[in-house]
């Protein structure tokens, strides 16, 4: 009886420690690609905006500072290519919309937001560097 209680207590402690270790690990989106590291700390990031092309050309991309409700238009771009790169300051939230006009005159909007950030990487590459993450946004239509 006493041995059974000790085994139950020990197995409970092992399960608890396993769960703590499992959930204390770093987020996997911060894996480092050392080829994209920069030695100087950046103040801006090249944001890649992915859009649908073909039937809906041209696509109007509007970049807003903050949230859409704030209505602070930062930049507007018209494109016919499947991707656009836009240089934006770091550590700010941006809401980006893509407007698609059909041949029938219907307008479809795809809206998403992101906050590009920089991270200092001290020991995962040959030398310390800065890594930009959250720099890709997908505004493709889902058919």
Shape: elongated
Strand content: 35-45%
Rg, rounded, reads 23 Å
Q: How many H/I helices? A: 1
CATH architecture name: Sandwich
How many domain regions? 1
Helix content: 10-25%
Give the termini separation: 62 Å
The biggest beta sheet is recorded as: 4 strands, antiparallel
Salient structural properties:
single chain, about 140 residues, alpha+beta, Immunoglobulin-like, 3-stranded mixed sheet, 9 strands, about 15% helix, about 40% strand, elongated
Outline the structure in words:
The chain is α+β, with helices and mostly antiparallel strands and 143 residues long. The chain has a single domain (31-139), classed as Immunoglobulin-like (Sandwich), CATH 2.60.40. It contains one helix and nine strands. It has a four-stranded antiparallel sheet, with no helix packed on it. It has a three-stranded mixed sheet with strand order 4-1-9, with no helix packed on it. Strands 7-8 form a two-stranded antiparallel sheet.
Element layout with pairings:
Layout lengths: L1 H22 L20 E8 L7 E7 L6 E8 L3 E7 L4 E8 L5 E8 L2 E5 L7 E5 L2 E4 L4
Parallel strand pairs: 1-9
Antiparallel strand pairs: 1-4, 2-3, 2-5, 5-6, 7-8
Summarize the structure in short:
This protein has 143 residues and is an alpha+beta fold. It contains 1 helix and 9 strands, in the order H-E-E-E-E-E-E-E-E-E.
């Amino acid at each position: 009886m006493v041995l059974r209680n000790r085994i139950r207590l020990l197995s409970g402690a092992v399960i608890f420690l396993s769960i703590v270790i499992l959930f204390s690990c770093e987020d996997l989106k911060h894996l480092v690609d050392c080829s994209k590291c920069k030695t100087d700390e950046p103040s801006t990031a090249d944001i890649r905006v992915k859009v649908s092309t073909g039937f809906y050309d041209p696509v109007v991309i509007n970049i807003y500072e903050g949230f859409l409700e704030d209505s602070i238009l930062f930049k507007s771009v018209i494109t016919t290519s499947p991707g656009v790169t836009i240089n934006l300051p770091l550590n700010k939230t941006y809401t980006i919309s893509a407007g698609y006009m059909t041949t029938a005159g219907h307008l479809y909007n795809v809206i998403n937001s992101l906050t590009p950030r920089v991270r200092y990487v001290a020991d995962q590459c040959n030398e310390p560097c800065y890594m930009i993450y959250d720099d890709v946004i997908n505004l493709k239509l889902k058919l």
